[in-house]
Amino acid sequence: MSTLTGSALPRQIADAYVDDLLELDPILGTYLGAPGSGRRLPDFSPAGADALAALARTTLDRLTEAEARPGARGDAERRCARLLRERLTAELAIHAADEQLRAVSNMGSPAHAIREVFTLMPTGTPEDYADIAARLREIPAALEGYRASLTEGLARALPAGPQQVATVIEQITEWIGDGGSGSWFAALTADGPRERRAELDAAGAEATAAYTALRDWFRDTYAPAVAGAPDTVGRERYARWARLWNGTDLDLDEAYAYGWSEFHRLRAEMVAEAGKILPDATPWEVLKHLDAHGQAVEGVEEVRDWLQGLMDEAIAALDGTHFELAERVRRVESRIAPPGGAAAPYYTGPSEDFSRPGRTWLPTMGRTRFPLFDLVSTWYHEGVPGHHLQLAQWAHVAEDLSRYQATVGMVSANAEGWALYAERLMDELGFLTDPERRLGYLDAQMMRANRIIVDIGMHLELEIPADSPFHPGERWTPALAREFFGMHSGRPSDFVDSELVRYLGMPAQAIGYKLGERAWLTGRAAARAAHGDAFDAKAWHMAALSLGSLGLDDLVAEISAL
Questions:
Q1: Fewest beta carbons within 10 Å, which of 188, 284, 305, 490?
Q2: pLDDT tens-digit profile of 506-546?
């Protein structure tokens, strides 16, 4: 444990927690660019989870003492203390419910975290490749710890959902390829220096063998053991996850009703916009037409370049007018995601010193043609002014906040809400006047409204309202959710399939987009009402983005007062 003086304040407690956490979670260390983390992997066994929980409890005890000190009364200390207490309390509730003993999902499991961290490791020197080889050799033990946790979950009658298991088996099968030179790990090390060739080949083979063993265990032992278990989690488990992802205790029935109100509003807007492209066609007929005949980029490298250009153009247009960006925040890279993951694009933030920039990642899913109607708004979300401007700004002002507020303490709904707000902002600013791109934006908004409806609906088995155009009066099931989502989305079927598996495996995460956007809009409206004609949107944006992470209730309170 980090040593602290008897006068330590909440921000010091929070940063000491980060230091201690990095010892337990070197994957996090790689994301932050922390020295010395690149050769190790976390302990994913039950003992490893218990160590994380013990650290959280000790930190909460330290925080209670720190909050009683006179210097803790300022706004900066108060915000940090409130965030740290809320986050650690929510995480301990998840641990107490033994959720780590059934952590199987198509994008958020230890198996995914282990593989994905290699995409962020530097590869510029032979020493970098020595770190990669060392970490590859850690994979067998890390996966064995993960398997021990799942085995303990089975012993306690805590199964993961069968659909998650089936999907992960498919994903690992793609990662390992033929088990030799065709594996993802062999490709990872293929460009390594000649003097490290034998070491890298051997380490890659060890990693591939370990994942092969995990795949076989999932297929032969775990999948039969969880057959027949529910894929949904029920209200009690769902409420715990909702607190973790949203940073507040939600009224789930109110949130469900809000999702439906947004569905009806957006549906009307989509009908109007679709009529500009194909009169008398439904929005989803128009989107299908655009998928085949609309504006598109041909080629994987070409789309990567195009997305880079889109973000560069957005920075040039917004900096100095609607934002005030530091030079290092202006740098963001477009990347193609490694195969074998979920279908949704994603963003990884910069290292703390910005030596590794923020990056957006596009999964190609085997495609070589990329329609633009659903890419433009998505890259405003993932890149600029979405995730990149928020998370890079947090890193930029970390010394004024705390390391914890800028990194580890991120509340998903805060960040996803900002990114969805960013999409709406670009529409408000006139960047989406082209009917194809604006219909794509509305479809993206509709997808987030649909997430609230089906995520809450199927996990809680709620009734479909009487005014719904889809199965009114019936209760949600995963099968109905898949049908509804497919009917009201312009995304291809493989994307929709991946999304539904995601919602089942990460309950309540997907509802934070729309609920978070609502929080950002509520706060902006309150600040604008308070200032009247003197409201300065650029100043408000930068002040709000410099607060660091907050749960949704705290977010509304803080940004309303700016």
A1: 305
A2: 999 999 999 999 999 999 999 999 999 999 999 999 999 99
C-alpha–C-alpha distance, residues 266 and 263, integer Å: 5
Residues 153 and 143: their CA atoms lie apart, in Å, by 15
Q: pLDDT digits over 487-501, tens only?
A: 998 888 888 999 999
Tokens of 71: 């210097």
Residues ≥6 apart with Cβ < 8 Å to 47: none
The torsion angles phi and psi of 319, rounded to 5 degrees, stand at: -70, 125
Residues 206 and 319 in one domain: no
Report yes or no on 151 lying in a domain.
yes
The residue among 516, 104, 170, 207 whose CA lies nearest residue 343 is 170
pTM greater than the 0.85 cutoff: yes
Tokens of 217: 């265990």
List of residues 6+ apart from 450 with CB closer than 8 A: 259, 263, 484, 485, 488, 489
Range of the domain at 366: 239-512
Q: Is residue 104 part of a domain?
A: no
CA distance 482 to 458: 10
Residues 46 and 131 occupy one common structural domain: no
Of 8, 3, 15, which is closest to residue 409 (Cα–Cα)? 15
Asked whether the beta carbons of 515 and 452 are under 8 A apart, the reply is: yes
User: Cβ(270)–Cβ(446) under 8 Å?
Assistant: yes
